[in-house]
Inverse folding.
């Protein structure tokens, strides 16, 4: 775990922030390259990116603060709410915030909603890969203790160590117990999802298919990696499910409904165009 990249006097650059910046740049670059295939100017994607970034950060931070208010923010200076460089962003909150901000921009500029969503979906999955590397370097989103050969330890003073120390599992000078590398699991699953969505984009049958597939695929991938998480307190579990798994259920359902409804609309449009183009007798 290396949360700080470098420090120059009072200026501290955190790896988490660096990875978030790389996630944004990688997502933007790949989306701009993909956009012309959907007849969308690349500069429109660049303009949209700022809206998505602001919406994602606000949404992700809002959900994190409200979820962990008692553990991390109650009694702390109010400025800690905005200290995103310390980590603390919830992906689903960022997704919802980005969708809202993006929809507002697309409506304003009168851009095609589902075509644009298809362009962006693979890039979002790619950005998640960098985000999980940032989580690993920051020491957050860690897994539960395990004895698997590929388990990882976090150093003394890390989030994992702090939780285990308060539970009486480790001593004051020892590192954490070996834990599941959930950040790596989630990163690899998102990388596989990115390649699948990029492949699907060139072969899609209707507008919105790639975005709907992203919602379905991410909900499944997140549900798998969440099963190994160890950073949630008992208060955060609902019916034996983590917050990420709980939110993943409606996300999966929305993705499935979108796939069904948009595919039907895609099938009806060619038929309607054929009727309009049929000459009268």
């Amino acid at each position: 775990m290396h949360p700080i990249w470098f420090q120059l006097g009072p200026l501290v650059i955190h790896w988490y922030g660096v990875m978030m910046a790389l996630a944004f740049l990688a997502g933007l670059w790949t989306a701009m390259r993909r956009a012309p295939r959907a007849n969308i100017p690349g500069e429109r994607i660049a303009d949209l990116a700022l809206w998505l970034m602001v919406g994602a950060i606000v949404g992700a931070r809002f959900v994190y603060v409200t979820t962990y208010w008692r553990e991390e923010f109650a009694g702390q200076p109010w400025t800690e709410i905005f200290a995103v460089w310390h980590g603390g962003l919830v992906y689903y909150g960022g997704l919802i915030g980005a969708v809202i901000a993006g929809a507002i921009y697309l409506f304003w500029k009168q851009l095609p909603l589902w075509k644009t969503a298809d362009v962006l979906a693979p890039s979002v999955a790619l950005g998640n890969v960098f985000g999980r590397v940032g989580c690993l370097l920051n020491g957050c989103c860690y897994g539960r203790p395990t004895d698997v050969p590929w388990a990882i330890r976090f150093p003394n003073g890390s989030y994992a160590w702090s939780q285990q120390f308060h539970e009486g599992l480790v001593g004051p000078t020892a590192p954490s117990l070996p834990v599941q590398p959930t950040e790596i699991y989630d990163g690899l699953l998102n990388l596989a999802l990115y390649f699948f969505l990029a492949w699907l984009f060139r072969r899609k049958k209707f507008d919105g298919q790639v975005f709907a597939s992203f919602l379905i695929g991410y909900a499944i991938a997140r549900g798998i990696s969440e099963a190994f998480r160890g950073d949630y307190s008992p208060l955060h579990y609902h019916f034996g499910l983590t917050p990420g798994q709980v939110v993943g259920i409606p996300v999966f359902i929305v993705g499935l409904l979108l796939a069904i409804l948009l595919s039907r609309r895609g099938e009806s449009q060619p038929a309607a165009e054929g009727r309009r183009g049929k000459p009268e007798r």
Summary: Confidence is low (pLDDT under 50) at residues 271-275.
